Amino acid sequence: MARRIEPCRKSPEERLDDLLSGHREAALRNEGEKYLRRAIASSDSMPNAVKFFAYALLAADASDDDDALRALGMAEAVLPLARQDLGRRFEKELPGLAFLERGVAARSGRAEFEEAVRLCDLAISLGLGAAYERKKSSLLRML
């Protein structure tokens, strides 16, 4: 008789800690994208709050813009859940993420300025500050 695999009993915050530390170690070896792809693929029970961070990190680390924009879309889809589930921890970790910066750069590089402005608005609504306000002003001049 096969032995049953016990489900993970860690809290979303503990799972987030594991993801962030694993990504940090992999990034030191220039394997951050590879680590994130494996983590996402192998964890079908990953809490949505942790999925947000996995996709946000993948959007920043992706080797090409198409992959970055796909990951950004996935991160945006679970962003409200992550914000709700992690609260203060979400607010603490958010400024360290570069997923919106990568998205704005990818969209503006493709001359998709309206979408880049929308991402700037999202960043501003998340409290990511004046840098995105300046980017938005610059992008609006291109429309």
What keyword list fits this structure?
about 140 residues, 8 helices
Structure description:
With 143 residues, the protein is an all-alpha fold. The protein has two domains: 11-97, no CATH class; 99-143, no CATH class. The protein is built from eight helices and no strands. The protein has helices at residues 12-28, 32-42, 48-61, 65-86, 88-93, 99-109, 113-125, 130-142. α3 packs across α6, α4 (65-86) packs antiparallel against α6 (99-109) and α7 packs antiparallel against α8 (130-142). It is globular.
What would a concise description of this structure say?
By secondary structure, the protein is mostly helical. It contains eight helices and no strands.
Give the structural class. Answer: mainly alpha
Apparent shape: globular
Low-confidence runs: none
Order of helices and strands: HHHHHHHH
Oligomer: single chain
Approximate helicity band? over 70%
Strand tally: 0
Estimate what percentage of residues fall within beta strands.
Answer: under 5%
Q: Biggest sheet, open or closed, and with what strands and sense? A: none
Q: What's the rounded overall pLDDT mean?
A: 94
How many helical elements?
A: 8
Q: What number of structural domains do the residues give? A: 2
SSE diagram, text form:
Blueprint lengths: L11 H17 L3 H11 L5 H14 L3 H22 L1 H6 L5 H11 L3 H13 L4 H13 L1
Helix pairs in contact: 1-2, 1-3, 2-3, 3-4, 3-6, 4-6, 6-7, 7-8
